[in-house]
Specification:
about 130 residues; alpha+beta; 2 domains; 4-stranded mixed beta sheet; 4 strands; about 30% helix; elongated; DNA polymerase I
């Protein structure tokens, strides 16, 4: 009995919106949806949402249209690529893949892309430390 009293629905509350106000609307903010779904990494759910809402997903089609000149530098070539395509002050995108955990974290691969369409992917196994001397 106590549980029923505690979980009883409130039926006498005045709400500012009614059922007709809660219907589907086509007015929604695509940029806000992209920001939230990017942060939550909801790529499959984003596709289903845009399919349901109609109009497709311009972000996915815009991303697919980007051409990238991808380099796979060998040992000792990473510095030269960075000097040529990502000099100091150049804005680049970086993606590091590996294992992230408090103990035993490691980076396995590094990808770098520039706004002018150049990209580089390298395994950290191929990287070496070079002295500037």
């Amino acid at each position: 009995l106590r549980n029923r009293r505690l979980n009883a629905l409130v039926c006498d509350l005045d709400l500012p919106a009614g059922p007709t106000d809660l219907g589907f609307t086509t007015e929604w903010n695509r940029d806000a949806i992209h920001r939230v779904f990017d942060a939550l990494e909801f790529s499959a759910l984003r596709e289903r949402l845009f399919d349901y809402l109609g109009g497709g997903d311009e972000k996915a089609s815009a991303d697919a249209a980007v051409a990238l000149d991808l380099a796979l530098p060998g040992e000792g070539q990473v510095g030269a690529w960075l000097d040529e395509h990502a000099a100091a002050g150049t804005v680049v995108g970086v993606d590091v893949s590996g294992v992230l955990r408090p103990s035993g974290a490691r980076a396995d691969t590094i990808a770098v892309a520039t706004a002018d369409g150049h990209g580089m992917w390298v395994s950290t196994d191929a990287l070496t430390v070079q002295d500037d001397a």
